Amino acid sequence: MRRGANSVRYVSTRGAAPELGFDEVLLAGLARDGGLYVPDQWPTLSAIDWRALRGADYHAIACAVMAPFVTPTIPAETLAEIVAETYAAFRHPAVAPLKQLGANDWLLELFHGPTLAFKDYALQLVGRLFDHVLRRRGQRIAILGATSGDTGSAAIEACRDRAAVDLFMLFPNDRVSAVQRRQMTTVDAANVHAIAIEGTFDDAQDIVKALFNDLAFRDTVNLAAVNSINWARIMAQIVYYASAALALGAPDRPVAFAVPTGNFGNVFAAYAARRMGLPIERLVIGTNRNDILARFFASGAMTIGAVEPSLSPSMDIQVSSNLERLLFELLERDGAALAAWMARFRASGTVTLEAPRLARARELFHAARVDDAATTATIAEVWRETGELIDPHSAVGVRAARLQRGDPRTPMISLACAHPAKFPDAVRAATGITPELPPHLAGLMTARERMAVLPNDRNAVAAFILSTLGRGTPRAAGDAA
Ligand SMILES: *Cc1c(COP(=O)(O)O)cnc(C)c1O
């Protein structure tokens, strides 16, 4: 059977894993060859299709953008139902509204979901897609993750009360903010479990990796992941780039975006929107002091450094896993070449992109490093100039946009990735004002907390998961049958 030109299959960036359909990619996470899944071709919408979406609501744009990626696994009517249910719960009628900051500068507000960060826009949808696909397959999964901040609460809100999903979220005990912890521990749902590990974020992350590598355990509990290597998260993020671009005149007028970046997931969704046919002229990347991406786009050298804490903790990352998806394109989709590249990076901690390929990337991408002082100054500046309070991550993007502005006639859209009340200390330090939590979270600081505290020990975590799920102890991987 021939596939329609606008329905995709998924291939690994390292070229040695089986090709998958959408439901398998949704559940797979990392490919078996260590790569990330990407569509085998970029579906495009014509200028006529895009024009027809101007003035449409967020739901209609979401269905049009995502349909080619989920067909034929999810029929159009089912997608429409899931999308409607997902975004009905967001607190702004436009879902992802634009605010004008300056003559031709805009802010795309992505904090109107339940946990006040952009991750809700994808995870709220992905939780429902999990349920739909698992119900049809008669399966359950156990999602395991580690978080140092926003991902944990967004994943918990997305998975609470999902019938086919159990969620175990590890975080470092006493090392996340009170707001962040309470967003995880006050959720009253029997299938979600916040687990404080007596250790650092890296310890929690190591436990997650060890349990994913324990194949006997992995199979016993049907382990799955929701970090940003999951293709479905990128797919759902393409929608707000399309909605903002259409609102400001696409496809007949080019636009530019500025994106505060850690794992390169969000800005890769912007790249995907461009590949789908939107006239995105420039993508500005803002990094904090953890600037591996700014250094990469300046020199072509990808060189790992030590992670240092900053005012924008959700971007305190030195290995941007989603950059692999862009490298795959820059290497003309040569999976074997990319696998060799990544092996060299892992062995030596540094690897360099050839000049002509870097030059191609720099036609679109422009990066800037924004330190804590500039972040604070930008929060203050935006407050003085516009009366808007922005969070420190958003400030990194706004400052990068100002440093790397191209044609002034092109609208520059900066992403506001979190609500200022998620980072009240940084906002207060810059402006003297303490941003207030929206009404639905007003009771957060007094609600009852529920969490397990476990030692920094993978066996303790495995035992907790097995007893919670009511499963027995798995055989160790090496035991005879
Ligand atoms: C996760 C997060 C980021 C970084 O996004 P990436 O997709 O990892 O680049 C930036 N800001 C906020 C508020 C976040 O929660």
| CATH fold-level assignment | Rossmann fold
| Share of residues in strands | 15-25%
C-alpha-based Rg, rounded: 21 Å
Give the helix level as a range of percent. 40-55%
What are the bound molecules?
pyridoxal-5'-phosphate
Strand order of the largest sheet: 3-4-14-9-10-13
Uncertain stretches: 475-481
Sum up the overall morphology in one term: globular
**CATH architecture descriptor:** 3-Layer(aba) Sandwich
Number of domains: 1
Question: Main β-sheet, in a few words?
Answer: 6 strands, mixed
Q: Pairing-aware structural class of the strands and helices?
A: alpha/beta
What is the name of the CATH class?
Alpha Beta
Describe the structure.
With 481 residues, the protein is α/β, with parallel strands linked by helices. The protein has a single domain, classed as Rossmann fold. The strands form four sheets. A six-stranded mixed β-sheet has the order 3-4-14-9-10-13, with helices on both faces. It has a five-stranded parallel β-sheet with strand order 8-5-6-7-15, sandwiched between helices. Helix 3 packs across helix 4 and helix 3 crosses helix 10. The C terminus is likely disordered. The site of pyridoxal-5'-phosphate (PLP) has 16 residues, from helix 11.
